[in-house]
Amino acid sequence: MIKVANQPEYAKLPPCQIVPRLADMGIYIASEASFYRVLNECKQLKHRDKSKPNRKINKPRALTATAPNQIYTWDITYLPTQVKGIFLYLYLVLDIYSRKIVGWQIHHEELSVLAADLMTDICNREKVEKNQVTLHSDNGSPMKGATMLATLHELGVVPSFSRPSVSNDNPYSESVFRTLKYRPEYPEKPFADIGVARDWVKCFVQWYNHEHRHSGIKFTTPVERHTGKDIEILVARTLVYKKAKLENPNRWSGEIKNWDHIEEVYLNPEKGKSEVVENKAA
Prior knowledge:
- This protein has 282 residues and is of the alpha/beta class.
- The protein is 37% helix and 14% strand.
- The strands form two sheets. The chain has a five-stranded mixed β-sheet with strand order 4-3-2-5-6, with helices on both faces.
- Residues 274-281 have low confidence and may be disordered.
């Protein structure tokens, strides 16, 4: 069996390929299972063809944010134009702790240098210090381009990347883009030009950051959480619920709603950790 498996015409083939070929020639030596067993005993059960074996891709490092400006996540999404096949590109950076959109821009192209300019502006406005922020993204060319990586190094921002072709390694960006494109105000027709697109996204960001009660941060706004005002709001909200229960205890079948402040937010958490991110709406 080993002698046959190591013949030139079969040496690069697994048993599941060898046995049918032999059968087509009217030859039966053993089952596929027997071939596998014998090859394994002889330490020849390995990748037998020229293609590379499947490469194990490790999950990105688990990250935890306990305050604003610790972990950003960013991505680029397409915005349609009135010219078929031509798109605008929305670059958007989100703070996963507060869910605040800390920066965005729209361009005609996906370029590393444009992403680098956006991050430089964000770090200046948010007064980010070196080694303070980790920036997570997927593996697109603007994310891993030389200009972007060099800029992150200069700014002291630590890059983090998703696994190739695994979208849920970057769930916060996916969530905010879904919220954006499912807003009732999202245009039914493509954008007429980049100016119109920028005006619409500017209004969306204003609403999202300052008015939107986000389910992932106990229905406070991203700006309230980013500035720490959510703590006071949640305490006051708890008192309102407690008072209501005392005044009308028969209307309550259990404890009041939990308005405790969320202390930690996880990105790609290990098993057993709670991942605070929404699948449907941000």
